[in-house]
Amino acid sequence: MSSGVESNNPEFRKLNIQISDFTSSLHYDRRLYKQDIAGSLAHVSMLGKQGIIPNEEARQIKSGLHSILTEIEEGTFPWRTELEDIHMNIERRLFDKLGPVAGKLHTGRSRNDQIALDLRMYVKESCEGITKRLDLLQKTLLELAETHIQTIIPGYTHLQRAQPVLLSHHFLAYFEMFQRDKIRYERVKDSADVMPLGSGALAGLPYPIDREYVAKKLDFSSISENSMDAVSDRDFLLDFHSATATCGIHISRLSEELVLWSSEEFSFITMGDDYTTGSSIMPQKRNPDFAELARGKTGRLIGNLVALLTVLKGLPLTYNRDLQEDKESFFDSDDTIVAILDIFSGMLASLHVNEENTHLATEKGLLLATDLADYLVAKGLTFRKSHTIVSKLTDYVLEHHKTFSELTLSEYQEFSNEFDSEVFKITPETSIENRQTYGGTATSMVSDSIVRAHKRLKNTKLN
Fold it and tell me: What is the DSSP string of 293-334?
């Protein structure tokens, strides 16, 4: 017991508040209230069904929990920060309403398996919400692909103009990335879809509980196999952070291209006014701030993955208080990716493609060099020999500040007698249409890809 001197000393009172704040998780885990109450309702139903507590007392507890849920959602719940977390706040409020009978709710349960349950339920719901947003983003990309099925742009390697491609093909590349992201979130949901309640603090419970009943009521497809692993496992959160960081990287790559394409150096696109901002000093500027912010926020998503890996790397079995640090980073990543996805679909829908500039970019570059080499291969030369000839031809074009289309036949034939008048039929359009391999950029292939993409959207498992 503290001495009177300590209790009257403002410095000690200040220290006690600091200690309470240091251990409290209420300011972020209160977001788990729906999951916590749903878990408690299922648990107390099972206790009543199994005769572990009287059915009438189970009914009273369920009524009290429903009342607490209403209070929280109406904003009248009396939160008490000194109670540390969401679990103790709800339990204390239940005592306020019911008296001693409220203490029976915690029969056959520990906060260790309780928080593991809440987090798994939240992650499953989060994956569903993120997947729906990815669906919308993919639909927007498909609309852009359908609109620009005839638009040709330079394809790049090393950020150097390489070969002509359809802009639709480029957009569909990101469709594929986001499709893989949805598969990752599907796996995350499966990873979280294991019901840990009934593990107790770490060793299981001495009550005749029915874990399968609780799992069914809470829509879990399986129950945990090992009680020690169940209360300490956060692999499903690592899976979430990994999937989210990867999704963020895909968004960041697309953001980077939007930033580049909207610059004066490219001038391929302009973005809607709602998704650009002006400069505080330069009136001519329209900055792609939303794309830049999406690119920048990816660093947070990666950092949150690393943070949780670092928390987990040295923990002995089973539960350790370090695991309290799993939630803030999770909620931050969840909020961040949702905010990015909510913005991104609208930003993509606002794009205007400057087709005159994309056309000029394909005409001015040396994008047909590979097609010229393939032309010589068709004449019977080996590809290596053809590559050497066209490489020298390219040097000549650059030296004389010309394009391939500006060369005469005699100039072509200075490098190989295999060149004839057919060489002038090689254009960005023919280059595109010659790429008839499955997954290539030919119009027919891209059109087929769009059809398949629509079908895959309809078959998303998490929808």
Answer: HHHHHHHHHHHHHHHHHHHHTTPPSS--GGGGGHHHHHHHHH
Length of the chain measured in residues: 463
Q: How far apart are CA 411 and CA 432, in angstroms?
A: 25
At 28, the pLDDT band (50, 70, 90 cuts) reads confident
Kindly list the distances between the CA atom of residue 361 and the CA atoms of 5, 255, 256, 348, 365, in Å, as whole numbers in the listed order: 80, 21, 19, 22, 6
Q: What is the pLDDT of residues 234-267, one digit of tens each?
A: 999 999 999 999 999 999 999 999 999 999 999 9
Distance in angstroms (rounded) separating the CA atoms of residues 229 and 318:
7
H or E element, residue 353 = strand 352-353
Q: Compute the half-sphere exposure of residue 410: CA atoms within 13 Å on the CB side of its CA.
A: 0
Q: Which domains does the chain carry?
A: 4-107 (1.10.275.10), 120-354 (1.20.200.10), 361-458 (1.10.40.30)
The catalytic site residues sit at 158, 279
The per-residue pLDDT for range 384-437, each reduced to its tens digit, is 999 999 999 999 999 999 989 899 999 999 999 999 999 999 999 999 999 999
184 secondary structure, DSSP code: H
Nearest-angstrom CA–CA distance, 26 and 327: 11
d(CA 185, CA 457): 15
Instruction: Give the pLDDT confidence of 306-345 residue by residue, as tens digits.
Output: 999 999 999 999 999 999 999 999 999 999 999 999 999 9
Instruction: Tell me what the mean pLDDT of segment 118-125 comes to.
Output: 98
Asked if 149 and 446 count as a contact pair (C-beta separation under 8 A), the reply is yes
Which letter does DSSP use for residue 53 in this model?
S
Cα distance between residue 11 and residue 155, in whole Å: 66
How far is residue 363's CA from residue 150's CA, in Å, rounded to a whole number? 15
Residues 6+ apart with CB under 8 A from 128: 189, 462
- In this prediction, residue 364 carries a pLDDT of 78
Strand pairing class (194-195; 222-223): parallel
Look up tokens 């349960």; give the residue.
109
